[in-house]
């Protein structure tokens, strides 16, 4: 397995080099920032680029941006992110780049078998995600999904609205009064964050949220 590594901490970088080599990987280059990582990938064309998310100069998302540039310019190179923390938005951006990606927490890569397996799966075009990353992404999705706040009854009403049913038809199909239908719809608008507006048709906006 031919690998290039980007990690700004010298001590951690040297430790990762040894760990990668013990996992039967050949480290072609070990660099300290995203720019150098892209250059190393261009020079060596490894099977996998191993990268930290936060690197100089701003220690925010340099590693991720370098990884995305590598994916754009060298799509055959797998990307394995090793991070100290679960960066939800960064993990999402990485996954949207396609297969051949992995996101593991640094304190979970001490087992050589696990690291070797992750490298092999990423190089083969697979996806490797730390369980904590999966949990964080699912939680984030639930937080961002307003439909998750709807009760089963409200979801049923919204589904019928999406079918183009009138309030009267919804009441007949659900065997409830029109007043109850209107109460459910009002609650739906509130939970979906759709206040009264002269510019938007709340019923249409709610249906679009359902279809999305």
Automatic annotation (TrEMBL):
<protein>
    <submittedName>
        <fullName>Response regulator transcription factor</fullName>
    </submittedName>
</protein>
<keyword id="KW-0238">DNA-binding</keyword>
<dbReference type="InterPro" id="IPR058245">
    <property type="entry name" value="NreC/VraR/RcsB-like_REC"/>
</dbReference>
<keyword id="KW-0805">Transcription regulation</keyword>
<keyword id="KW-0804">Transcription</keyword>
<dbReference type="InterPro" id="IPR016032">
    <property type="entry name" value="Sig_transdc_resp-reg_C-effctor"/>
</dbReference>
<feature type="modified residue" description="4-aspartylphosphate">
    <location>
        <position position="52"/>
    </location>
</feature>
<dbReference type="InterPro" id="IPR001789">
    <property type="entry name" value="Sig_transdc_resp-reg_receiver"/>
</dbReference>
<dbReference type="InterPro" id="IPR039420">
    <property type="entry name" value="WalR-like"/>
</dbReference>
<keyword id="KW-0597">Phosphoprotein</keyword>
<dbReference type="Pfam" id="PF00072">
    <property type="entry name" value="Response_reg"/>
</dbReference>
<dbReference type="InterPro" id="IPR011006">
    <property type="entry name" value="CheY-like_superfamily"/>
</dbReference>
<feature type="domain" description="Response regulatory">
    <location>
        <begin position="2"/>
        <end position="121"/>
    </location>
</feature>
<dbReference type="InterPro" id="IPR000792">
    <property type="entry name" value="Tscrpt_reg_LuxR_C"/>
</dbReference>
<feature type="domain" description="HTH luxR-type">
    <location>
        <begin position="143"/>
        <end position="212"/>
    </location>
</feature>
<dbReference type="Pfam" id="PF00196">
    <property type="entry name" value="GerE"/>
</dbReference>
